[in-house]
Amino acid sequence: MSDDNSPHTSDPADASAAEAAGHHSTDPRRSGGVRLTVAFIAVAALAAVGGGVVASSIGQDSDTQTSSTTDSGEGRSTVEAATTVANVQVAGEHRGLESVHQDGHENRENVLVTTDWLAERLDRGELQEQGIVLLDVSEELASSELTPYSEAHIPQAQYVNWSTEFTQPNTREFVSQEEFTQLAQSLGINDDTTIVIYGDNNNWFAAYAAWVFKLYGAEDVRLLDGGLKKWEQVDGRELTEEVPSVVEGHWQASAQNLDLRALQPEVLTIAEDNAANEGQNTGERNLVDIRAADEYNGEVGVNAEIFEGEGASIWGHIPGAVNVPWGSIVNDDGTFKDAEEIRGVYEDAGVDFSKPTIAYCRIGERASHTWYALSQLLGEDVKVYDGSWSEWGNSVGVPVVNNTGQRGGVWGGN
């Protein structure tokens, strides 16, 4: 499911209006070697005092338990602190950004190809023979006005299901390095392949797929600027029902590049510092929340009937995060705005590009769209917190800012 309200509205005019609104290592480039990152996510520290319970936003080390003794007036009682954690294990390494950035800030075509570019290559013949693999990564909502892949699609495109082919069942963690290698090879991807990805919803899930491919070390990944909307609705170009046959590729995935992905413990450290600074960013790194303003402010959660498993118990945003709705960096036809215009949007919101940035949304795909703009178009140091608000807003004890001054969500009586 998408993590924005706008494409789910039944009225197209309402949807258009909503869309328009809608621990960084010291030198990661010098560290290498595959390692197993064990992230202990501290979600609650509870102290039992005379029958009362006090919750704080971060606990002690999971292997440590402390106790002290107090006088309650009716005798001595023991105060114990315990920490509940989720033990997340991610196999990855720090490879830096050298192979991630494709010099899109120097030549936009290095990361974004136009519909004309693709049409010209389709006219030449088989894309795979030209070293190109075209992928459709769409959400395919019933309310979409665009044609689903199963009915018709851009010629020679292969379909990839973002929710089942990138992630493990029942964990939401990504597939293993070996499994991702098998997926990529089945799509005909080789070491020198140019991977071109497009989708519906202004390339949200296409950008998510691009981030996942870069996470696993693919070197040449580009988006079709404007995606299916530009190709089908704006340009009125050809679609086909034919599913292409491809020759199996030989590309090998690398371990996840942890310089592209933020896990909750890293974000929690930043949030704790910002919370101690009255919710203001401490300046060590940028946090960018690209959800709609009413979600960021804590005025609303999500419609659980529409978004199913994406709802959150707590409403608001991570302390210190600035709000830059994703729609502020795209044109009406779904294409990205000019790079300097995009830079200005974020700088006006308070993003300092001399510091690294972490982007989040609700489930990660809009954050990937922002990552694509800031990382691939502008060449900046950006991570995606893919757990996003569906993880943060359902965690016990993490700090949250609600600009309404109210208690939003399940625990606020809403």
TrEMBL record:
Nucleus as a keyword of this entry, yes or no, is no
* One Pfam match: Rhodanese
InterPro entries assigned = Rhodanese-like_dom, Rhodanese-like_dom_sf, Thiosulfate_sulfurtransferase, Thiosulphate_STrfase_CS
Region of interest called Disordered, as start-end residue ranges on this chain: 1-31, 56-78
Regions of compositional bias (Basic and acidic residues) in chain numbering? 21-30
Compositional bias annotation for Low complexity: 10-20, 60-72
In what residue span(s) does the Rhodanese domain sit? 128-240, 281-401
Keywords, in A-Z order: Membrane, Repeat, Transferase, Transmembrane, Transmembrane helix
Q: Which SMART domains match?
A: RHOD (SM00450)
Determine the domain of life of the protein's source: Bacteria
Task: Give the signal peptide range.
Answer: none
Q: Which reaction does it catalyse?
A: thiosulfate + hydrogen cyanide = thiocyanate + sulfite + 2 H(+)
Regions crossing the membrane: 36-58
Name-wise, this protein is Sulfurtransferase
Species: Nesterenkonia massiliensis
Upper classification of the source organism reads: Bacteria, Bacillati, Actinomycetota, Actinomycetes, Micrococcales
